[in-house]
Amino acid sequence: MAGGSRDLEARPFEDGDRAAWDRLVEESRSCHFLFRRDYMEYHRARFEDASIVVFDGDVPVALLPASRHGSDVVSHGGLTFGGLISTPKLTTRRTVSALRAVLQRLGQDGAAALTYKAVPAIYHRIPAEEDLYALFLAGAVLSRRDCSAALRPNDRLPYTKGRRSAVRQGRSGLTIGPDSAWLEFMTLEAAALARRHDVAPVHSPEEMERLAASFPDNIKLFTARRDDELLGGVIVYETPMVAHAQYIAGSERGYAEHALDAVVDFLIGEEYAEKPWFDFGISTTEEGRTLNEGLIRNKESFGARAIVHDIYRLELGGNREMD
Hints:
Layout lengths: L8 E4 L5 H10 L9 H4 L7 E2 L2 E5 L2 E6 L2 E3 L2 E4 L9 E2 L5 H17 L4 E5 L12 H9 L2 E11 L9 H11 L3 E5 L2 H16 L7 H10 L4 E8 L2 E10 L3 E9 L1 H5 L2 H13 L5 E6 L1 E2 L4 E2 L1 H8 L4 E11 L8
Parallel strand pairs: 6-8, 13-14
Antiparallel strand pairs: 1-3, 2-5, 3-4, 4-7, 5-6, 8-17, 9-14, 9-17, 10-11, 11-12, 12-13, 15-16
């Protein structure tokens, strides 16, 4: 104990913690539906859950979404990011104590290392980077940094001249707005990724449809159509702070007719005009060390600029004293 306060205790997540877990997520500074148990567990067959709950007595005060990968623990292998989640009540000193308790627990459970995927700052409702300081004290090292691009819809840089022209052409004669054709869009997405990058989407069409049905206030599809033909669209993951473009895809005709320019312009200028941030997603490959210059230039032409997704690694046998 220090300063008269009670020591924090970290325990593995159990099914009986589900309601308390989701409630803390909703109250947290990094509120994101990705961290709700129903979202984390939709792909439970692919990831061995290793999530941790930090308690102050009987009260949960922090969470670590995590999965086990051999002797390593990742926060979380199935999520884009997922660091230590806490409410505004957890101060810097107590966050250091919370991470210490987590590391001790992981070590007791036989984990050799922690890969920590920090939540990007734009997703915080109020400042929430105490965990980064705690990681520094523990001796964690930055192992990966991905470059994303984001903008403030109500205070953004102007479009480039070429982007303005493309938007004008794309907005002419298209029907743009919310859509529920999840299977049709994800089929288009799969074809576009295969054609352009020779990869497949992370989610199958059926998975995306199920997730959208489970989180209708957070997962939304917006499309551009001409005479009912799907030319392109964007799946948005929405949180209190951020509208994130999770999937962006267009047909060959859609690209020729600037359908995606029109959809993105609609999202930035109308649908999410009052949202604090619009996030286009990362533009890096090879563990963040290769920048796709054409991709990020495309995002920057809408007025976006770089933010980073940081990943840290901590060898649990050698982390230094955090007191």
